[in-house]
């Protein structure tokens, strides 16, 4: 900054030399504030839209091992309450993250009890996130998977769930290549849609007693699919669909068991008839018979693992009676889903972003 005292001395010298006009101008310049000319800034390049998950998460402390905490996340696509379980053990590990979507009338805590997923998290070492649907969004706490606005990337509930997923992954320092999503009934349908919309986030999907969304775009269409069986969404040959594990009871009177075939009709952009099916049968410890069919590509890549539980209804198989809609007699769906999930991870070339 220019020193005004030097300007006053200069004006005094000019005055003594008989130059009053020059002295006045020098004094005026010394006492007036210096104004810098404004520089024209180059037009800023538009930045790609990003979800503000990392910035928020960076300000929060990582939850303690063994903690089961409640939270509220507000993002550009809406707010979601949630429960978050951090497994016991070292907090320095980059753990996998499993997102669990409850069914109608359930809550996050109820779903956690019924699936016993927190106990498996301690056993295998992964984080569990339970987003919770609000009654203001749906009176029965159903995920609104049947609405077109909740079936697209960058829109509605899939975008909100994806944003919460990335927020949690940043908060808990999760392994970004090992993030998975699963759900039951309406939560299973929402999990399938969210996974399909965000293949750059979720490495695999787990579906239990769910409806194949297909071309369902209304509540009457959803009810029809529940009664009669849905039709899977057609995929282009360039589309990447995550590996899927499916559980369904053949005596389910709430969601028709034919919905399971809706997820199998097109596999990773390849017709189902070109895939190799390996069928095995067994019986759970509780006495329920089941048929397990694994569909692999001609290159031996696992695409779909389908479990049909004979005599099973609309309930989480192998679940805990402490939760609602559970069938302890069935095969352990939670354990099998985690076994399937941990065998898959995102390819390293895929960019993980939930931007619109």
Overall mean confidence score, pLDDT: 83
Order of helices and strands: HHHEEEHHEHEHEHEHEEEEEEEH
Q: What's the helix count?
A: 10
Computed Rg: 29 Å
Structural class: alpha/beta
* Main β-sheet description: 10 strands, mixed
Helix coverage percent of residues?
Answer: 25-40%
Q: Could you give the count of β-strands?
A: 14
- What is the CA-CA span between the terminal residues? 47 Å
Arrangement of strands in the largest sheet = 1-2-4-3-5-6-7-12-11-10
Percentage of residues in DSSP E strands: 15-25%
Shape: elongated
Q: In terms of per-residue confidence, which ranges show pLDDT below 50 for 5 or more consecutive residues?
A: 45-55, 234-238
Question: What's this entry about, in short?
Answer:
It contains ten helices and 14 strands. It has 356 residues and is an alpha/beta fold. A ten-stranded mixed sheet has the order 1-2-4-3-5-6-7-12-11-10, with helices on both faces.
């Amino acid at each position: 900054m220019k020193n005004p005292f030097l300007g006053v001395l200069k004006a005094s010298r000019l005055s003594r030399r008989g130059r009053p006009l020059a002295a006045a101008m020098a004094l005026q310049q010394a006492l007036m504030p210096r104004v810098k000319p404004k520089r024209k800034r180059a037009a800023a390049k538009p930045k790609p839209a990003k979800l503000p998950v990392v910035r928020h998460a960076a300000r929060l402390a990582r939850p303690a091992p063994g903690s089961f905490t409640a939270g509220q996340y507000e993002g550009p696509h809406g707010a979601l309450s949630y429960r978050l379980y951090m497994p016991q053990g070292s907090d320095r590990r980059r753990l996998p993250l499993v997102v669990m979507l409850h069914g109608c009338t359930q809550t996050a805590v109820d779903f956690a009890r019924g699936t016993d997923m927190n106990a498996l998290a301690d056993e295998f070492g992964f984080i569990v996130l339970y987003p919770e649907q609000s009654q203001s969004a749906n009176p029965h706490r159903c995920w609104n998977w049947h609405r077109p606005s909740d079936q697209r990337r960058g829109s509605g509930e899939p975008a909100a769930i994806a944003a919460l997923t990335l927020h949690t992954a940043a908060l808990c320092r999760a392994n970004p290549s090992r993030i998975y999503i699963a759900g039951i009934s309406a939560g299973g349908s929402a999990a399938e849609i969210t996974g399909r919309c965000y293949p750059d986030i979720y490495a695999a999907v787990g579906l239990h007693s769910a409806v194949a969304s297909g071309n369902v775009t209304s509540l009457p269409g959803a009810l029809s699919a529940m009664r009669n069986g849905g039709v899977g969404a057609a995929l282009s040959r360039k589309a990447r669909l995550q590996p899927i594990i499916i559980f369904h009871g053949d005596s389910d009177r709430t969601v028709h068991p034919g919905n399971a075939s809706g997820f199998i009709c097109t596999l990773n952009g390849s017709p189902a008839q070109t895939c190799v099916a390996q069928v095995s049968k067994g019986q759970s410890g509780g006495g329920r018979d089941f048929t397990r069919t694994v569909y692999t590509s001609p290159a031996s890549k696992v695409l779909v693992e389908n479990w049909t539980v004979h005599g099973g209804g609309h309930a989480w198989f192998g679940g805990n009676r402490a939760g609602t809609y559970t069938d302890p007699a069935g095969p352990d769906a939670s354990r099998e889903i985690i076994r399937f999930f941990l065998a898959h991870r995102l390819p390293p070339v895929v960019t993980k972003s939930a931007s619109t």
